[in-house]
Amino acid sequence: MPIYNKLVRDRIPEIIEANGKSFTTRILDENEYHSELRKKMHEELKEYDATDSNEDALEELADLLELIHAATAVHGSDFNQLEAIRQMKAKQRGGFDERIFLIEVEDD
């Protein structure tokens, strides 16, 4: 039996059971949950980095977005507040649309 020891989406146990397989799960405490969300984000980012098609990339970005929603709640907020912060930072510092790659800055 494979051992995964990782955070999974809420319906995964239901899907495993529907396939006639047995499994073991446990509910994480708040600190474990936060830690596992971070690990899962790294896992999904690596999967995004390894994609070869737009379709696969969008699938992985959707996974990352789901994790961002979950992490936002862990930090006592919601996606609307997160989006407001994103918009404020974009207004103050810009986005990434212009593809600017900073090479160096002269030091005084």
- Number of contiguous helices: 4
Proportion of residues in extended strands: under 5%
Q: What is the overall pLDDT average?
A: 97
Low-confidence stretches: none
Summing up helix and strand content along with how strands pair, one would put the structural category as mainly alpha
For the record, the count of structural domains works out to 1
What is the β-strand count?
Answer: 0
Largest sheet composition: none
Radius of gyration from the CA trace? 19 Å
Give the SSE string: HHHH
Tell me, briefly, the overall form: elongated
End-to-end Cα distance, whole Å, is 61 Å
Task: Walk me through the structure.
By secondary structure, the chain is an all-alpha fold. The protein has one domain. Helix content is 58%, strand content 0%. InterPro entries: MSMEG_1276-like_NTP-PPase_dom (IPR038735).
What's the short story on this structure?
The chain has helices spanning 12-18, 30-49, 54-74, 79-93. The chain is mostly helical and 108 residues long. The longest helix is centred in the middle third of the chain and has 21 residues, at 54-74.
Structural key phrases:
0% strand, mainly alpha, Nucleoside triphosphate pyrophosphohydrolase, MSMEG_1276-like_NTP-PPase_dom, 108 residues
Q: How is this fold's topology laid out?
A:
Layout: H1 12-18, H2 30-49, H3 54-74, H4 79-93
Helix pairs in contact: 2-3
